[in-house]
Design a protein that fits this description.
With 141 residues, the chain is α+β, with helices and mostly antiparallel strands. It has two helices and six strands. It has a domain of 87 residues. The N and C termini lie far apart (76 Å).
């Protein structure tokens, strides 16, 4: 039995696309990079602890989200200078501090390069109504 024209065409396509390899021993034909070819425009992200400016952005976001007062609120923050970013979320109901001020605890995420961590903090409402962040440190579970 002879294969039909279509079957013969399919066989030829299959054989042609079956893949073959060619070995080349002339290594001069390939491009090679050395240190002089590197521009430094692409760098590996730094793994670093939060800077003071990162913490300032996180504190500002914490003050904003605590002012909202919603139990499901969350506030994003980002430091354009370092690329660090995260969000702040209140984690408990407000409580009265020893001095009578209204206070609330929160968690803040911190992401910079491959560093991902959590910070815990607390803020209290001032007599003028603005939330002041008095604690922001690495989270201990």
């Amino acid at each position: 039995m002879r294969p039909s024209g279509l079957a013969l065409t399919m066989i030829l396509i299959g054989l042609g696309a079956g893949g073959c390899s060619m070995s080349r021993t002339d290594t001069k034909a390939y491009a090679k990079a050395d240190d002089s070819d590197l521009t430094g425009s692409i760098t590996r992200p730094k793994d670093a602890a939060p800077t003071e400016t990162d913490l300032a952005f996180a504190r500002n976001a914490a003050s904003d989200v605590l002012s909202i007062g919603d139990k499901d609120a969350s506030q994003h923050w980002e430091n354009p200078e370092t690329g660090a970013r995260g969000s702040v979320t209140p984690i408990a109901q407000s409580y009265a501090a020893e001095d009578g001020r209204k206070c609330r605890d929160f968690l803040a995420s911190y992401v910079n390069g491959t560093t991902e961590t959590w910070l815990q903090g607390a803020g209290c409402q001032s007599s003028r109504g603005r939330w002041e962040i008095h604690t922001l440190k690495p989270w201990r579970s």
